[in-house]
Amino acid sequence: MKKKYLFLIASLFLVSPVLSQNCSVLCNSNFDSVQVTFGSNNFVDSTQFPCWRTTAADGLIEVWPSGFFGVQGYSGIQFIELNANFVSTVYQNITASPGTVLSIGFAHRGRWGVDTMSVAAGPVGGPYTTLGYFADDSSAWGVYSVNYTVPNMGANYSIRFNSVYAVGNNPALGNFLDSVAICATEPNTCNLLCNENFDSLQVAFGADAFVDSSQFPCWRTTSPDGLIEVWPDGFFGVHSYSGSQFIELNAYYVSTVYQNIIATPGTTIPISFAHRGRWGVDTMSVSAGPVGGPYITLGFFADDSSAWGYHTVNYIVPNLGVDYSIRFNSIYATGNNPALGNFLDAVSTCSPTDEISKIHSDDAEFFFPNPFENKLNIKCNEDKPTQLILYDVTSRIICNLSFTKTAILDTEKLAKGIYLYEVRNKDGVIRKGKAIKD
């Protein structure tokens, strides 16, 4: 069978671990809280399985011990299979405040070939927003993270892992899941931009307006006529994502709308925004870089005209001065009309509360050697189970390791460069910093 992989461009970026976060949102995140019989899979009534529930008609969650049928868990001693006796969704309900960004990390693997699952989130009872589709084969775990910004729809929300396809179409087989972790970043330092909702200069209600960007607070455009097209909420039946106005990237020309900011080299800036097509599926990209370039593309985003898509990407500020540009680029609009397409709203860039360039003075005692080459020794004076999460500079999870007191990490296959780490136990984050591979 030809392997099929689905790639999520939109939001596979974890909000930086250097932000002030609560990473204890979930319980039983490794599915280890109820020990099953070693050497066989077990079907556990979800009412007896801590924190997790299922949409399966029989209410059963299938739990595998690590090593059963030769399949090792990604972390911990157990993992689950989304398809127990039925194609189903396994979910956990949490409490979250509106505006909070939830970074949802997890490991996924196929059972007999390339299986596909999706991740969704939303208020308990719905509607649920699909955050991405993930396809992995049976040879290894794929590790991902997606972001969900909590809307103002109450306090109780559901994080959901949905079986979409399994090789053989057997409803009782497919989609292994492990190592689910959620960090909640409160919206408290999102102040790098101004006029982020495009509301600072009010246009006439009931009509779009073409505003000279030199008169429009903070934002500029590459359009040769210098105009930014501003839409009031509800015009032509299109409601803004937030606030009273939004903009269309294509005014009279295919263009880039941007804002310049001051940023500290080495910091990670999460960039969140809402995007929507005008007449169909429109595509835009987000890029960032020092003023004047070069600009790094952080992702491409395609959304149709039926609803706003909300996305988050990260930008690691390089050491190229202090003035940087956040840029939203029109790529494609349905009909190829240069004057139509790509609505944008609710742009937010957050300043980290501390910097990744700061290293703990005792890091040499925790990570050694540092810089490292092919082996990294880890020592943590904690008697309780501890979790190490290692990220690259794009905030992609490289390793998610559970240990107690000491561990040795094989780093031979890691590329040279800077890596960020975060150490957690059941009480939360106890350490974070960086390690360097020479």
Question: What structural class should be given to the helix and strand makeup?
Answer: mainly beta
State the share of residues found in helices, binned by percent. under 10%
| Rg measurement, Å | 23 Å
Residue-averaged pLDDT: 82
Main sheet summary: 7 strands, antiparallel
Please report the total strand number as a whole number: 30
**Termini separation:** 41 Å
Number of helices: 1
**Shape label:** globular
Low-confidence stretches: 1-21, 352-362
What proportion strand?
Answer: 35-45%
Features:
globular, 6-stranded antiparallel sheet, 438 residues, 1 helix, mainly beta
Structure explained in plain terms:
The protein is mainly β. Helix content is 1%, strand content 45%. The strands form six sheets. Strands 1, 2, 4, 5, 7, 10 and 12 form a seven-stranded antiparallel β-sheet that branches. Strand 24 and strand 25 form a beta hairpin. The chain starts with 20 loop residues before the first strand and ends with a strand.
Please outline what is shown here.
The chain has 438 residues and is mainly β.
Task: Describe the protein's topology.
Layout: E1 21-22, E2 42-45, E3 53-54, E4 60-65, E5 78-81, E6 89-95, E7 101-109, E8 115-123, E9 129-136, E10 142-149, E11 156-165, E12 176-185, E13 209-212, E14 220-221, E15 227-232, E16 245-248, E17 256-262, E18 268-276, E19 282-290, E20 296-303, E21 309-316, E22 323-332, E23 343-349, H1 363-366, E24 367-368, E25 375-379, E26 386-391, E27 397-403, E28 406-410, E29 417-425, E30 428-437
Antiparallel strand pairs: 1-12, 2-4, 3-6, 4-5, 5-12, 6-11, 7-10, 7-12, 8-9, 8-11, 13-15, 14-17, 15-16, 16-23, 17-22, 18-21, 18-23, 19-20, 19-22, 24-25, 25-28, 26-27, 26-29, 29-30
